[in-house]
Please model this.
Amino acid sequence: AQTVTQSQPEMSVQEAETVTLSCTYDTSESNYYLFWYKQPPSRQMILVIRQEAYKQQNATENRFSVNFQKAAKSFSLKISDSQLGDTAMYFCAFMKHKYSGAGSYQLTFGKGTKLSVIP
Amino acid sequence: DGGITQSPKYLFRKEGQNVTLSCEQNLNHDAMYWYRQDPGQGLRLIYYSQIVNDFQKGDIAEGYSVSREKKESFPLTVTSAQKNPTAFYLCASSAVALNTGELFFGEGSRLTVL
Model:
């Protein structure tokens, strides 16, 4: 079974500064997906960024980037130029690859990190 | 607009009653999921379905039931056997064929047992 650990229950950052959220995972799979999802106070979960394990290059989406260390099973999220709208719960998630057999398409979530952006 | 609609947003139930949460999607996605969210627990998978008329138990299926009679609909019934049903419930869907692994979520339903 896969596990996802987010060791920072809460974090805060000043507006316009940079913050990094940590995530580690445990799996015996070699091919999988990793995600960061954001859940703002309005509650609708939205995808922030996605990484495929076989790709060495770290994914980036505008102000959001990841540091994917496959050997260390680490997947941290960096938010640059933090904005007030970034205030939310952030969840790291793992999914087995489509062709990995039983359990594919199931997301395993970490417990989340509550990020507050301070004006 | 395409998306996932969950209803009701808020629901109150007396102990011993069954209640059904609705989830409808117009994204033409094959797979649908139900997650339960509790404070400090993250999201836990209740049931998922990859095709019509087929579904599998997730990590915490006890006390819940689902059906998948239509591609666009995946209702969740919280039965009286669920010992602690008060929670926030999230429905999601994904396009299996695209192989992106991305889930699209509804806005959630908050169930409170009185």
Notes: The longest strand of chain B covers residues 42-51. Chain B has a mean pLDDT of 91.
